[in-house]
Amino acid sequence: MNSLRQLLSGLLLFVALVGAPSCSTPEIELGPVDAVVLIVVDTLRADRLSCYGYDAHATPHLDALAARGAFFRDAQAPASWTIPSMGALLTSQYPGQLGLVEREESVTNPRMRRKQHTHNLPLYERTLAERMEERGFDTAAFVDQPGLNTGRGFMQGFDHWAFPRHPGRIEVLTPDDPMRHRPWGGFLEHADKSDRALIESMDAWLGEHAAKPVFVWLHLLTPHYPYDPAAEFGVAEGEKDKSTLYDGEVRETDAMIGRVMEIIGQRLGWDRTLVILTSDHGEAFGEHGTWEHGQSLHREVVHVPLLLAAPGVPGGIEVDRRVRLLDIVPTVLTAAAVHHDPAELQGADLVPLLSGDGEDRPVFMEGMLYGGTEWALIRDDRKLMYDAQADSFLFFDPRRDPLELDDLSGTQKRRALGLLDAVETTHRLMAADRSHRLAAAAPGDTAVSAEERARVQQALKSLGY
After folding, report:
1. Which of 12, 212, 318, 327 maximizes the CB count within 10 A of its CB?
2. Which candidate, 153, 82, 8, 73, places its Cα nearest to that of 320?
3. Under a CB-based contact definition with an 8 Å cutoff, are residues 428 and 417 in contact?
4. Boundary (domain end) residue, out of 329, 359, 389
């Protein structure tokens, strides 16, 4: 199993590629960190923030967070919808390794919802929260996302789990009181109300725990469809254009981030806190014939914001290197001095990139909710997207053609076929690694201790399986 993981890591260079240090930029080291706040804004496109160059509106609070530390211009999600992307973010393992990918039977209708192997984060995987909890951090999650409810395994490692059971009314669960599947109906239309309530719930929890080492995950839902921004965020009454309405919700979210930053400053202090803000995926508005997300791996649904502020990080750093959501776990663990084996993780610490070290990191993408199975790989200066049902591929130069409008598969076919071979080999290795993980977690397998098996069994029972 270890040799398989090493081969997988070697193929995609999933550990950071170290380049020559910049002679003009001093090495940056994060100061002591005993508080970590991970903010995930669901469905937030990077290119709708003014700090990323969007000029149709301003996002002053997100810009202020970027100016406080660093922002990464080219951060990529590993999937185009929430569950596989968040599973990967919280474990630094790819969706295929976690089993959070669709079945590969043929689907001809691009709007047809795919059958998934599983919607559950495997209980035998070690999450970021579990690692932080073992290190002595108090852990809390404030999550407005029905797909991430505690019946799906995302609660692992959290001492405190807050969520809106009803719009705007926050409830708290414990491992002994698991939440069953929560339907989407009625929640999307009131996401802003619930998000604001969650933020205040987080403030109250920090009021009781801020003196201790803390790890907090805040997951906001406001930019998600159906795009219904509050009137004060500059959208004319009767506006029907989805992209315009989405921008209004981005501005509304920006105002909420201002409140979050206020809480961090008051409760924790910026001199001890690592803050990371990102998104699980973006959103499409017809750029390649699709809308919303989960239907392709084009840039509009996988290019996400990534902002980082921490003691020791000077303000205003822009990182042009390509990075991945899988890099968040090793960055947090290293900053918080949590012992870990980097070989166990598919991501790599982001901090060396702040000093100008390193190269673009390869990104493997999978995880579709609708339509045909797609895999994609960005490596060096090319991106290949493969449609397994149609047995066809697209080939792009993201640096020259960031909107992915110019398919080079005809003019650069040999180079494209080389990347296609890497994509197919990677997928096979992902599937094999997943099989090994399942076998290692199976009852009676000596690769997993009796104590671990008992823990998993008890966790499964508590969730009603």
Report:
1. 327
2. 73
3. no
4. 359
- Report d(CA 361, CA 350) in Å as an integer: 10
Residues near 37 by beta carbon (within 8 Å), at least 6 away in sequence: 216, 218, 260, 264, 268, 273, 274, 275, 276
Contact 11, 426 (CB under 8 A): yes
Q: Could you tell me which residues are beta bridge partners of residue 140? A: 160, 216
Residue 429: domain span: 374-462
Ordered alpha helix ranges (H), 210-273: 242-263
Q: What is the pLDDT of residue 77?
A: 97
Query: Please, what sign has the CA dihedral across residues 243, 246, 250, 255?
Result: positive
Q: For the beta carbon of residue 212, count every other beta carbon within 10 angstroms.
A: 11
Rounded distance, CA 255 to CA 273, Å?
Answer: 21
Q: Model pTM? A: 0.89
Residues 326 and 384 in one domain: no
Closest listed residue to residue 137, CA positions, set 220, 37, 260: 37
Question: 301 with 204, same domain?
Answer: yes
Pair 351, 334: CB distance under 8 Å: yes
Tokens 């000077």 -> residue: 314
Condensed to tens digits (0 to 9), the pLDDT of residues 21-49 reads 333 457 888 878 999 999 999 999 999 99
The total number of residues written for the chain in this structure: 465
Domains in the chain, number? 2
Separation between Cα atoms, residue 71 and residue 375, nearest integer Å = 27
Contact 138, 212 (CB under 8 A): yes
Name residue, tokens 């990529």.
76
What's the average model confidence in pLDDT over 105-132?
Answer: 84
Q: In sequence order, which ranges of 135-271 are alpha helices (DSSP H)?
A: 191-209, 242-263
Burial class (CB in 10 A: 0-12, 13-18, 19+), 153: buried
For the stretch 210-251, pLDDT in tens is 999 999 999 999 999 999 998 899 888 888 999 999 999 999
According to DSSP, the residues that pair with 35 across neighbouring strands are 214, 273
* Whether the Cβ atoms of residue 344 and residue 93 lie closer than 8 Å to each other: no
447: three-class secondary structure by DSSP: coil
